[in-house]
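User: Show me a protein chain along with its predicted structure.
Assistant: Here is one chain, sequence first, then structure tokens.
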Amino acid sequence: MATEYLATSGGRSDATRNPRKTRRVASERRRLTLGTVDKKEPSQSGAARSSTGSTTAAPTDNHGLMQFLKTTNASDLVKTTQARRKLNLSSFHSDQTGQKSFDEKLTQAGPAASSSSDKRSAADKAGNEKTREELNKLGIGISCKKGMKPESPNQDAFSVLYVAEEFLLVGVYDGHGQHGHHISQFVKDALPKLFLNEPNRAKDPAAALQTAFAKCQKLIEHAERHATLQAGMSGSTCTLVYQILAGPEKGMIYVAHVGDSRAVMVSRTSKGAYTGRDLTRDHKPSLAEEKKRIEERGGRVLFDGFFNHRVFAKGQMYPGLNMSRAFGDCVAHREAGLCAEAEVSKFRIQSDDIGLLVCSDGVWEFLEAPEAAQHAMNAQNEDAQVGMENLAKVSWHQWMSDSDNEISDDITGVFVQFHKLNHTSSAAGPNQQPQMVKNSYSTTAASYGSMITRDGPGPAHLR
């Protein structure tokens, strides 16, 4: 008879009463999203999968929407009455392995290669510097680093879309499971487009965000049924932040999220110190309303004996997720009460608010909002990139200290400084020609990597 994980209880842990009946997750995974990563997924309940995909015909609406997303650039969905400057940046994932350690990435001076195949050309370095300049002009710093996990590669992703005098859209996505990097990449590519394509985005951003999240999960399920995306036991968190830069709602921020990638407002206190406050709450199965939904939909919540309550299907020992909402994870959505319903919050930037942090759980495992804000600002408060890199490095060392240098989650964050963003937005005149900048942050490179090309006359395009 299989031993059982510790059941959720308000009193003393069952482990102290009968430790032999306690089944714990592997020690090295005690702080990670999944307690185990099995290459073989449990058989699906319901219709069996055929060798060619689903037993039913592909829904026309989902199929058409999938094709639309594949052939459409997010910035093309932004229709402006006048020419606006547009910057579109996002992570790029590779299945290649062999990355250097986090410390090596951070301490090497300037762009460097992780292997002979990754050597930088002069154009690559120039493109990297150009991207950094564009980011710092906007007051945006980004770090996306592979951790030390039993499975590879980097499963985090990010996206940034800036349209002068209109909005800033920032997303952070934290994948989990054997194919989590594919899920985070899918959500990163699809969700911003789904949101931007919502007809009521301008009038009701909150409703548009909720609809976009729901559509994104439906598309993942559609792809999973047709065997084009392995999302049965793999998934991703998402935190999407929509900041309005002009009009009646200028200074308003909408935050939509599933999972535990937090958004934090960075502020200055009356004494001049830096602090931070959470704009999101982690979607954990230990929350009363989350636990209730999980159990009503056939799942159960058990304590793993270390730090986390985890979600399991009734009578089964999968999936073992330490969160109650996520994209993908189709088995858990069907059998364990998981959902991808966005929790949307609305905030107005106050006079003492100076910035925004959006980071994956790799940052928040050991740091709370006030500490993170201090690390981001105290490094060099006029340089968002330096601040974000400093926060990432501090987070990494926390992981190493806790695990005896053996384990770390992937670490990703976007740091936005409001004063630079607002100044740059105001300075961008309506007659300025649109500029598209797409940056690829390679998971195999020791530093950020870019490849520069030109599409005819006009500004350089980084991809």
